[in-house]
Amino acid sequence: MLGPALLAASKTPRIRHFVTTSRVSRGLVNRFIAGNELDAAAAAVHGLVTKGLSVTIDHLGEDTTERSQAEATRDAYSTLLNRLAAEGLAPRAEVSVKLSALGQALPDDGTALALENARVICTAAQQAGTTVTLDMEDHTTVDSTLSILRELRADFPWVGAVVQSSLFRTEGDVRDLAHPGSRVRLVKGAYAEPRTVAHAKKADVDAAYKRSLAVLFAGGAYPMVASHDQAMIDEANRLAAQYDRCSSDYELQMLYGIRTSEQERQVAEGRQMRIYLPYGQDWYGYFMRRLAERPANVGFFLRSLVSN
Ligand code: FDA
């Protein structure tokens, strides 16, 4: 139960101040985040691509409450995409976008503003020769995110969706999304959700993940299997064999800094592995979710605090 408690505590200004100003945070932050600036991200992308991995890059930021900030994030993505094209990294490197960083939560016209900003990013991605995937945030954003996805796909059919097996609604959403040409990233879900909308037990989240995976493979979608859990990875590879999918017909995905030897092992066995690579100054929310996912990470962090 440490994870949900930590995620709840992470919302308080005191904890945020403590973690973001603590000198010892930086060591652990560096494990999960490529750096503050685009140069650091570009260097990390080159390193991963050289090892045969693909990448999806997240310019960190979320829960934007100002229009100007949303526009700055949109422009940062355009700069990033131009850089990927200039350095010959597209299409091995695409981008992942959080709609809440593009203004989705702004009162009145948040969904329209996020759609408008996302369109600009998709246009830049198309020109660069790569793709965009829309990250999924907490359950209150799912309807808005899926409606923006539908609008974007009318012009950019390659836009990727993300669905979370922890949510009760997801198996229905997966059935709608499981058609040929539909790029769908399946994750377990990183947000603390109420029991009214989400499975509370890990075993139920895992079973739902496997059911959704089967629907994606059976329906002819392009599954993006995002998990570090060996049981989920093995199940995806088993389904690929069952449905006669070759290695270009689906991909595995993991987060930067987690299970790196398994990332390389899957590539060595001939499979596609894409790494989710975050960079930027607004690392707090992303970092706290990574801590919360694994009690050992929290223990490591607390021990570093005590020993410094
Ligand atoms: P699980 O949590 O069961 O972990 C399995 C094993 O993986 C652990 O036993 C441990 O060995 C290792 N592991 C997992 N997390 C770790 C960590 N933080 N540190 C160290 N080891 C760890 N979520 C979301 O809500 N919206 C999104 O858009 C995305 N996008 C996304 C993209 C990609 C490429 C990935 C891999 C994940 C996401 N996620 C996400 C996060 C996802 O929902 C989930 O929280 C994490 O992937 C952890 O779940 P696992 O499937 O890895 O299994």
From TrEMBL:
Record-listed FAD binding positions: M136, Q164, K188, G189, A190, K202, S227, H228
Official protein name in the record: proline dehydrogenase
Domain of life assignment: Bacteria
Binding site for substrate: K98, R289, R290
The protein's required cofactors: FAD
EC numbers, comma separated: 1.5.5.2
PANTHER family found in the cross-reference section: PROLINE DEHYDROGENASE 1, MITOCHONDRIAL, PROLINE OXIDASE
Catalysed reaction, written as an equation: L-proline + a quinone = (S)-1-pyrroline-5-carboxylate + a quinol + H(+)
Species of the source: Intrasporangium chromatireducens Q5-1
Signal sequence region: none
Keyword annotations from UniProtKB, A to Z: FAD, Flavoprotein, Nucleotide-binding, Oxidoreductase, Proline metabolism
